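re: that chain from earlier
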Amino acid sequence: MKFELDNFQRNTPLEEFIEDARAVAKRLNKNTLTTREYDKYGKFHSRTIFKRFDSWLQVLELSGLEKSIKYGTTVEELFENLEAVWRTLGQQPRFREMKKPLSRYGVKAYTRRFGSWRNALKSFISFVNQSPENIEEIPVVRQPKITPVERLHKTKREISWRMRFFVMRRDNFKCQMCGRSPATHIGVILQIDHIHSWSKGGETVIENLQTLCEQCNIGKSNL
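^ sequence. v structure.
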C-alpha cells in the first residue's frame, strides 16, 4: 500500500475550482451540477470549495451552470428560524444547539445552503446588520372597512422578525425594565413592546420599539 500526502489547496486559484466544475458538468453532459456529483468526479472536494466560496450556488453561477438545485427551505425561513433561536437563547446559537425543539431546522439545512455553519452565521449577520433605515416599515393594508385607529397609522401593528431581532440586539437581548435576559435567567421570554402604544397612535418603527420580558410587558399592559 502506497501512502501519499494530499495536495494542499489553500492557494489554489478560484478559477481552477470553476474550470473543474465546468469540466465535471461537461463530462456528465449536464447544464448543472450537485455537490454529490462533483465529489464523485471532481478534482477537489466540495468541502474545500465551500471554504473559498459563499455557497454552491455561487460556484454554479460563476461556472455558467444553471442554478437548478431545489431546496425545500428558503433563505428567509432559515434566517427567521435562526433569529428565533438567537432570541430564545439571548446570544449567538452554537452548532450543537441547532436542534429540536429549540430549532425547527438542524445544522445540515444551513450547511447545505451556505456551505458551512460559519457561512450561515456570516450571511445572517450581513443581512440583519443593515442600517435601521433599510429595515422596511410594514405598510397598513387598506381594507374596505378601516377602523378609526387604523386611520392614524402609516405602519402595521405586527413587527417583522428582522425588525424584532434588530431591536433585541440593540437592547443586548435584555429586558429594558428589569434587565433580565434568557442568557442569564432560564425561562425568561423576551418580547417587543411599543413604547408609545400602537392603540394611541404609536408607529411600528425602530425608535418606538423596546425589548421587555414577558412579565414586565404584561405589567406594563396592566398599567
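The first strand starts at residue 190 and ends at 194.
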